[in-house]
Amino acid sequence: MKKYSLRAGLSAILCCGFSVLVTELASAQKTLKDAYKDYFPVGVAVAPRNLSGPEAELIVRQFSSITPENAMKMGPIHPEPDCYEWETADAIVAFAQKNGMKVRGHTLCWHNQTPKWFFTDAAGKQVTREVLLERLKQHITDVVGRYKGRIYAWDVVNEAVPDTGTAIYRQSKFYEIIGEDYIEKAFEYAHAADPSAKLFYNDYNTESSSKRAKIFELLKKLKEKNVPVHGVGLQGHWSVYEPSEAELQESISRFASLGLAVQITELDVSIHAKEHGRREMTPADKTVLTPELLSKQAAQYEMLFKTFRKNRGVLTGITFWNISDKSTWLDNFPVRGRKDYPLLFDENLQPKAYFNKIVDF
Ligand code: GLA
Asked: Which ranges of 205-244 would DSSP assign to H, the alpha helix?
């Protein structure tokens, strides 16, 4: 009897100790994709160079979705009229499939990173509306068609609304040559090429009340015309200073009220105040991640993910723009050479100190 209770006591202690250990290990090991598996896929933008070595391991361990950072943009994928560069885009899609990850396609129609030939004829003269529509149709049909069934969501039109002024439409070549219906045409072409893909309008600065209102008008018009638009992508290029919880919630609720899904498609939280135009470095520009900035960033990420969780069901995806602070597009934008630290993983690919607050809730 005595012997039995001693053993029972010992095993209780061992068992208890073991379960504490297991809990600790489990929490230390919690990953973004596991923590949010009942909420939304957590994705990351990648380049082919990220698909081997430690970065690839981190991608596979932490994320459940990927977006090609540049490989599917018009310029890189369709550099000449009859020539597509499929290799890098194919490699990214194959990597995702091999690792059981979703793919977001990015992006079919954007005023930046377009190939030079797209808007001119062989003599260098600007093409007509008919020719440009035909080219847009061909491009979208070919690209969406190639990945039909393998890309679950596409950013169809990117950044068609200007930051300032009252006009809804950015003065892009697409708008100038075709007119405002280039947007609905792009969605129709994409829907015809893959009727099961979820189609998104994607933009930045979506928490500015004036820009939000213009994007809302644009999307409302598209919905009224029964254009096959299924969601809106809030890029989420934010900073430790903005947006506020109320601003973010207002954007999500407003767009959701149109019956659209919402995704955060290019998330990063810069340590610098937000600027949308390029400029030179000045002595006032700081390039160090101070403890104060790190704690502001922790608070901002905690607020963002708390808000994302609250909007479960409406928010159908969160994607980070780049993997870690080792290399981010913000190191060169808006100020060339000004280091930034906008991601959850540091320059050594390690989770930042506050990471557990994002995955343990
Ligand atoms: C925009 C585009 C992205 C990317 C970023 C900067 O947000 O949508 O594709 O180019 O700018 O890296």
From this structure: 209-224
Residues in the chain: 361
Query: CA-to-CA distance for 124 and 261, rounded, in angstroms?
Result: 41
Q: Is the CB of 76 under 6 A from ligand 1?
A: no
Spacing, Cα 26 to ligand 1 middle (Å): 35
Is the pLDDT score of 34 beyond 60? Answer: yes
For the full predicted model, state whether its pTM sits above 0.90: yes
DSSP codes of every residue in 91-148: HHHHHHHHTT-EEEEEEEEESSS--GGGGB-TTSPBPPHHHHHHHHHHHHHHHHHHTT
Q: How far is the CA of 360 from the centre of ligand 1 (A)?
A: 30
Q: Which atom of ligand 1 is nearest to the CA of 202?
A: 8
Helices (H) and strands (E) in the chain, counts: 12, 9
Retrieve residue 260's tokens: 């659209």
Q: Which of 173, 171, 253 is nearest to 206 (CA)?
A: 253
Candidates 220, 215, 197; CA nearest to 205 is: 215
Q: Which residue has the tokens 């793919």?
A: 103
Q: How far is the C-alpha of 228 from the C-alpha of 321, rounded, in Å?
A: 26
Closest CA to 324 of 14, 94, 57, 35: 57
Q: Give pLDDT tens digits for 250-267.
A: 999 999 999 999 999 999
